[in-house]
């Protein structure tokens, strides 16, 4: 009953004087509605589960805004990984890009190719969540105000993104702030081009995906001379030269 009444009171209460609120509460069989009492009703009406609930606060009288919803107020700064955590996604972990996982048997989350982390919570929908991964298989998820989560891929690391072979793949770890356990189970690949993009770029230059910057520059110079339109005016060489140039510019 408190939930339904709370939803209605969320809109009605701010428009009523304190005396009217008292009368309404008595008619409904509640004690005199103090600020704490109303706040309890509204918190029942608006709190969520799965670590992604909204906070709702009601204040009687003066002293600031009567309602405070998560996401309101001053604009928050973009999240930053703490020291010691890689900011980028290791090339050997590119298979994780564009994949969807079930988090804690709760809801599905997505590892976007640009390093953003998508989950059905206010923080993530506001762009406050991101992820990175180290070459040793350690995955880092910075989940808004919930903070950093560190997970390990269980079993052998995939060498490439193969949806059929990745079935049953799991990650397990903890939230660093309080040690609360977390786990994720692979569901599907939703963006098949996300992991293939960089792989194709290295392949265009004839390099392995772990090539360093020096190797990339060296091969680019060699291939750009070989396929330069001034030396090879045919259409195939022009197309090849354009692919090499684009791959180098993106990787560099």
TrEMBL record:
One BP term from GO: ERAD pathway
Q: Which GO terms describe its cellular component?
A: endoplasmic reticulum
Q: Ranges for the J domain?
A: 200-252
Give an example GO molecular function: misfolded protein binding
The UniProt keyword set, sorted, is:
Chaperone
Reply yes or no: does the keyword Signal apply. Answer: no
Q: Which SMART domains match?
A: DnaJ
NADP as a keyword of this entry, yes or no, is no
- Residue runs in coiled coils: none
> Could you tell me what this protein is called?
J domain-containing protein
Please name the source species.
Pyrodinium bahamense
Give the organism's phylogenetic lineage.
Eukaryota, Sar, Alveolata, Dinophyceae, Gonyaulacales
């Amino acid at each position: 009953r408190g939930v339904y009444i709370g939803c209605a009171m969320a809109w009605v209460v701010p428009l009523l004087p304190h005396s009217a609120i008292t009368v309404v509460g008595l008619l409904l069989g509640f004690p005199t509605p103090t600020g704490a009492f109303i706040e309890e009703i509204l918190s029942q009406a608006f709190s969520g589960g799965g670590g992604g609930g909204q906070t709702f606060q009601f204040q009687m009288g003066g002293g600031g805004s009567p309602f405070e919803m998560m996401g309101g107020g001053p604009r928050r700064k973009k999240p930053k990984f703490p020291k010691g955590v890689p900011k980028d996604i290791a090339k050997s972990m590119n298979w994780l890009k564009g994949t969807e996982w079930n988090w804690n048997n709760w809801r599905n989350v997505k590892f976007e190719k640009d390093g953003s982390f998508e989950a059905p919570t206010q923080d993530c929908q506001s762009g406050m969540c991101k992820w990175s991964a180290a070459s040793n298989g350690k995955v880092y998820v910075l989940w808004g105000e919930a903070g950093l989560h560190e997970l390990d891929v269980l079993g052998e690391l995939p060498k490439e993104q193969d949806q059929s072979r990745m079935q049953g793949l799991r990650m397990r770890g903890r939230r660093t702030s309080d040690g609360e356990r977390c786990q994720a189970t692979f569901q599907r690949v939703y963006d098949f081009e996300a992991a293939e993009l960089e792989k194709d770029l290295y392949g265009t230059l004839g390099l392995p995906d772990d090539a360093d910057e020096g190797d990339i520059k060296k091969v680019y110079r060699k291939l750009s001379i070989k396929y330069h339109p001034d030396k090879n005016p045919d259409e195939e060489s022009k197309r090849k030269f354009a692919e090499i140039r684009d791959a180098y510019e993106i990787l560099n």
